[in-house]
TrEMBL record:
It comes from Nonomuraea longicatena. Belongs to the class I-like SAM-binding methyltransferase superfamily. C5-methyltransferase family. SUPFAM superfamilies: S-adenosyl-L-methionine-dependent methyltransferases. One of its GO terms (biological process) is methylation. The keyword Cell inner membrane does not apply. The keyword Acyltransferase does not apply. Keywords: Methyltransferase, Restriction system, S-adenosyl-L-methionine, Transferase. GO terms for molecular function: methyltransferase activity. This is DNA (cytosine-5-)-methyltransferase.
Length: 322
């Protein structure tokens, strides 16, 4: 039997990263998030997980049993402070939790660290100071670190979704760490959603699926400060149109027998996706229940790290512990 390892997850959200790490051999001693809907999602799907609703900036890990010296500190940090849509204010944005995550590592001293955020944090010259802060503090703690931008479609997820991943390990473990190389073929939107689109008797479901012959564009979740339950900014909505999807909002249910597919009418003649369908495009399990009404449920799903990406990195980390 493969060994199991312990993890502390921050900014846990809907649990995409935790699910992937669970499959890779990591069992959380505690999962932290400040959103009540996310905490509801996690506690409903995994009643045995220990969930804490709290602000990361106020969290002191060593005040909680089982947290000190955990094998892995993991989490998906808010992307808005480093994203174009979030005005790229970095550490000046009160939503930035990068420093809080590094300070938590000082407190907890995990064997390894895995933090996910927007690739912009790792590649944009504007955030060189943030990367320097991370590198200097991790080095002071005795870690070696690296980062990589991984695309979910390379790990079988039906979506072009680039995630920036930071890993840090103790030197002896770091020497054994190898970044996962994705090689799985990702299905198209039509292949993934064909059955669900026809589940209410929509006669055009098959022809729609044949035309939705590419992977999805990046699913954008918006933030609590702005944006609603739609599939993203103007450019992203145009990409959805080419796949035969009205990205201006989300549907409450899939098309029924009365709906007529009419691409020539623009978005009015195209179906909208439901939250459950977006969940499938994020590679979350069908039985993974999401708390909240449509908008908060969609945000949780859209902001998740697809489990196959987390699992791939987690397996590389676990192998480095051998």
């Amino acid at each position: 039997m493969s060994p199991r390892f312990s993890s502390l997850e921050i900014c846990a959200g809907a649990g995409g990263q935790a699910l992937g790490l669970e499959a890779a051999g990591f069992d959380p001693v505690l999962l932290l998030d400040d959103d009540p809907h996310a905490c509801g999602t996690l506690s409903t799907n995994r009643p045995h997980w220990r969930i804490l609703r709290a602000d990361l900036k106020d969290f002191v890990g060593t005040e909680h049993s089982g947290v000190a010296d955990v094998d892995l500190l993991s989490g998906g940090l808010p992307s808005a402070p480093f994203a174009v849509a979030g005005r790229q204010r970095g550490a000046a944005d009160d939503r930035d939790l990068l420093r809080a995550a590094i300070f938590l590592a000082m407190d907890v001293r995990p064997r390894a660290i895995m933090l996910e955020s927007t690739p912009n944090l790792l590649t944009n010259p504007r955030f060189a100071d943030a990367r320097s802060f991370v590198g200097e503090e991790l080095s002071h703690m005795g870690y070696r670190w690296d980062y990589r931008v991984l695309d979910a479609r390379d790990f079988g997820v039906p979506q072009t979704r680039r995630s920036g991943i930071i890993v840090a390990l103790l030197p002896s473990d770091f020497d054994r760490f190898v970044w996962p190389v994705g090689g799985r073929s990702a299905p198209t939107v039509g292949e993934v959603l064909r059955v669900s689109m026809g589940s209410r008797g929509w006669p055009d479901a098959e022809s729609w699926a044949l035309s939705a012959d590419q992977v999805a564009p990046t699913i954008v979740g918006g933030s609590k400060r702005h944006g609603g339950a739609d599939l993203g900014p103007t450019g992203t909505k145009r990409a959805w149109l080419t796949l035969g999807v009205d990205g201006s909002g989300l549907g409450d249910q899939v098309p029924g027998s009365e709906f007529v597919l009419a691409p020539e009418l623009g978005r009015e003649g195209l179906p909208k996706l439901t939250v459950d369908q977006v969940k499938r495009l994020q590679a979350l399990p069908d039985d993974w229940w999401i708390s909240g009404r449509k908008t908060p449920a969609y945000r949780q799903v859209a902001q998740a790290l697809p489990p196959p990406v987390a699992e791939a990195v987690g397996r590389s980390l676990a192998a480095a512990f051998a």
